[in-house]
Amino acid sequence: MPTLAQFGREGIASSANLNYAFSHHTAWHVPYPFTLGTLYEPFGAIGGTGGTLALVIAVFIFSKQRDYHLIGRWSMVDGRWSLLPVLFNFNSAVLVGMPVIGNGLYVIPFLLVPLVNMGIASAAVALNLMPSVVFTVPLGTPGLLQAFMGPTVI
Q: How many whole angstroms separate alpha carbon 105 and alpha carbon 116?
């Protein structure tokens, strides 16, 4: 019976997918298309934990409160623009500046956005619309690029 550790970022399934991609020169039809490294990191964590890139964009578009616009624009932690770190999956300034964890209104999308993103990605992989992610992309790579860089086979 496989364990959760085997399907993690550095598990047996990731190694098997990588070996398959190198030996067949393709990322299509890998043995384990659905692992933590193929779904959560490139698709579920776009903008950091909880998919906060969507939250920052929604604040810019829909919020009428000046405080949230300032937090979305200027980080409460270091005084820099918080959209830039969120693009690189570092979202602590947004999580602290907007009380995402302590606010029930923000906790629901914080939990649901990654699930929806991973559901769309897994449906696309299952329907063979895109190959599975086989390469571990380095930390700090922009979230939107991870999905494009991960299935690339040279």
A: 17
Q: In angstroms, rounded to a whole number, what is the distance separating the alpha carbons of residues 71 and 57?
A: 12
- Kindly indicate the confidence band of residue 135, based on its pLDDT and cuts at 50, 70 and 90: confident
32 within 8 A of 16, measured Cβ to Cβ: yes
Question: d(Cα 139, Cα 81) in Å, to the nearest integer?
Answer: 20
* Those residues with Cβ within 8 angstroms of residue 135's Cβ, 6 or more apart along the chain or in another chain: 18, 21, 149, 150, 151, 152
DSSP string for 43-87: IITTTSTT-HHHHHHHHHHH---HHHHHHHHB-TTTSSBSHHHHH
Q: Are 48 and 91 in contact (CB under 8 A)?
A: yes
Q: Phi/psi of residue 8, each to 5°?
A: -80, -170
Model pTM? 0.75
How far apart are the C-alpha atoms of 143 and 11, rounded to whole Å? 21
Select from 95, 102, 97 the least CA-distant residue to 49. Answer: 95
Distance CA 98, CA 146 (A): 26
